[in-house]
Design brief:
Number of strands: 7
CATH architecture: 3-Layer(aba) Sandwich
Number of helices: 9
Shape: globular
Radius of gyration: 19 Å
Largest sheet: 5 strands, parallel
CATH topology: Rossmann fold
Strand order of the largest sheet: 2-3-1-4-7
Number of domains: 1
Helix content: 40-55%
CATH superfamily: P-loop containing nucleotide triphosphate hydrolases
Order of helices and strands: EHEHHHEHEHEEHEHH
Bound molecules: adenosine monophosphate
Length: 246
């Protein structure tokens, strides 16, 4: 299985790291639109196995519900099969994988074997910024619409614009819980970042603390363009399409 993109260029594996509240979901969406390559989320793939009630789904149900990690072996195999699909020929964005050093090692070995080039993007956010971002989040208990005191306030303070319901703080957005989630993220991700510092020549730390998502994306685009991956983009630069100005 040799993965080559258009013009015989190496395929791209874009590995995206970002803590809860770093805007990783937004950046993934921008990147998928710009590059026209799929996003591969191991969390989504595992949930899909459970929904479909497959053997794998049954075997991981308890682990998933407890919020623990599924075995490296199983996740590595799912990813290996997924990236062999034709839509991954030019490249793909990995979201939530690798999660352990064991997964990272297997992934890098696999990429080297098939001639795919990795780019690692770490969205860096200040702890206190995330806490205020996440704890400022309010949700409508009836329709699920999300608001944010600073970035997306409701028209009337504390009231849902759509159905007039009183907004609430989600259980896992409470400050102690947010702190615990961030600490857990750092504990698990730190060794991976260390690993990629040594294993990859294309690892970038991008400041995503206070800048608008469009400005963060513009920096990622500039990095990708400099590496020669910009022309994977389905548009010319993609910048106009997304209304992004650096
Ligand atoms: P996520 O949607 O990325 O938060 O993942 C949801 C759950 O899926 C996690 O809590 C783990 O149980 C499992 N999971 C997702 N990705 C991985 C991975 N790379 N390695 C092991 N378990 C994973």
């Amino acid at each position: 299985m040799d993965q080559r993109g258009k013009n015989d260029r190496p395929a791209l594996a874009l590995i995206l790291f970002g803590s809860p509240g770093s805007g990783k979901g937004t950046q993934s969406k921008f990147l998928v639109e710009w590059l026209g390559i799929p996003q591969i989320s191991t969390g989504d793939m595992l949930r899909d196995q459970m929904r479909r009630g497959t053997e794998i789904g049954k075997s991981i149900s308890r682990i998933m519900k407890a919020g623990q990690l599924v075995s490296d072996e199983l996740v590595n195999k799912l990813v290996e099969d997924r990236i062999a699909q034709p839509d991954c020929k030019r490249g793909y964005i990995l979201d939530g994988y690798p999660r352990t050093s064991g997964q990272a090692e297997v992934l890098m070995e696999m990429l080297r074997r098939v001639g795919t080039e990795e780019v690692v993007i770490h969205l860096v956010v200040d702890y206190n910024v995330i806490i205020s971002r996440l704890t400022g989040r309010r949700v409508c208990p009836k329709c699920g619409t999300l608001y944010n005191a600073s970035s997306r306030p409701s028209l009337k303070d504390g009231i849902c614009d759509l159905d007039g319901e009183t907004l609430v703080v989600r259980e896992d957005d409470k400050e102690e819980v947010v702190r615990a989630r961030l600490e857990e993220y750092e504990r698990l991700t730190w060794p991976l970042l260390q690993f990629f510092e040594g294993a990859s020549e294309r690892m970038y730390h991008v400041d995503a603390s206070t800048r608008k998502p469009e400005a963060v994306f513009a920096e990622i685009q500039a990095r990708m363009n400099a590496l020669g991956f910009g022309d994977l983009g389905v548009g010319d630069s993609g910048v106009g399409e997304l209304g992004v100005r650096s």
